[in-house]
From TrEMBL:
It comes from Pseudodesulfovibrio senegalensis. It is a multi-pass membrane protein. The chain crosses the membrane at residues 21-44, 94-116, 137-156, 162-179, 214-235, 270-291. Keywords: Cell membrane, Membrane, Transmembrane, Transmembrane helix, Transport. This is ABC transporter permease. InterPro entries: BP-dependent_transpt_permease, MetI-like, MetI-like_sf, OppC_N.
């Protein structure tokens, strides 16, 4: 009997993946970025959270290859004297956590709402109108409203402590209708098929039919959406940081690093914004490329083989 690993090695998924240079190069770059982010305490030469190791006299040093650069700071330093290379690694970890966490929340809410809306017809109109109302508010409007209230009521100090889970909650609550509508459409198509009718005939409950039979057959579009939504969530966090409602400067993300260095870009300290910006664009780019490949692979009408 073949093992799971043997079946995976012989699968059409792996065969197709290895035949597409864009897919495996993007995946390799993404793995390197994610590993670098979560291994930051081991890889980074400095700890941007340890104020005892930061000297304000080292602020705004250019990259090491510049004439005024310091070999101890490969990509230079920011306005607080933090090593840019180390801060980018730690900031990228925060951005990835927020992106993945927000998408997990979106998927959880959206899948439940989509299943109920598509299978329980009495709930369809109510749930979809709620989704329509939610879609009428942009992510940034919801984030500005909740973030501003929280900072006003609890203060900046407490906001710093809960910034990551709060941003996950804000972005997750703002984007769940994307999943709900997609899952609902898949459920409406699946509920008419013979295997669902057979499950009803033998007396299975609606919950069991939805979760054990319909949901596994409706997950393909969810996987496609998730790859795109991770990139969107990371961009949303960066945009909120630019507006002052994202991560605080003391706990940097890629977005807050770009924002913090924006006021220095015209004074000559271009590296404070440019390097985090390059990493952010690269991270989103490879995620979107992988999302495109997954979409094409799961759609036989689009995938050329």
């Amino acid at each position: 009997m073949r093992s799971k690993w043997q079946r995976f090695r012989e699968s059409y998924f792996l065969f197709s993946f290895l035949r597409d240079p864009v897919a495996y190069i993007s995946f390799t770059v993404l793995v390197i970025l994610v590993f670098s982010a979560f291994a930051a305490p081991l890889i980074a030469p400095h700890n941007p959270y340890d104020m005892s190791t930061i000297d304000i006299m080292d602020s705004e040093l250019p990259p090491a290859w510049s004439a005024q650069g310091n070999s101890a700071f490969l990509l230079g330093t920011d306005a607080q004297g933090r090593d840019m290379f180390s801060t980018i690694l730690y900031g990228m970890r925060v951005s990835i956590i927020i992106g993945v966490g927000a998408v997990a929340l979106q998927a959880f809410i959206g899948i439940i709402v989509g299943l109920l809306s598509g299978y329980v017809r009495k709930l369809d109109t109510i749930l979809m109108r709620i989704a329509d109302v939610q879609l009428s508010f942009s992510t940034y409007m919801v984030a500005i409203f909740i973030g501003a209230i929280f900072q006003t009521v609890f203060g900046v100090g407490d906001y710093e402590k809960v910034a990551i889970p709060l941003l996950i909650l804000i972005i997750g609550l703002a984007e769940w209708p994307q999943y709900a509508r997609t899952v609902r459409a898949s459920v409406l198509a699946e509920r008419k098929k013979e295997y669902v009718e057979a499950a009803r005939v033998i007396g299975l409950s609606k919950i069991r039919i939805m979760w054990r039979h319909i949901l596994p057959n409706a997950l393909s579009p969810v996987l496609v959406i998730s790859t795109v939504q991770v990139a969107n969530a990371i961009m949303s966090e960066a945009a909120l940081s630019f507006l002052g409602l994202g991560m605080p400067v003391t706990k940097p993300s890629l977005g807050s690093l770009i924002t913090a260095g924006f006021e220095y870009i015209f004074s000559g300290s271009w590296w404070i914004t440019i390097f985090p910006g390059i990493v952010l664009v690269g991270l989103i780019f490879v995620i979107n490329l992988l999302g495109d490949w997954v979409r094409d692979f799961l759609n036989p009408k689009l995938y050329k083989g």
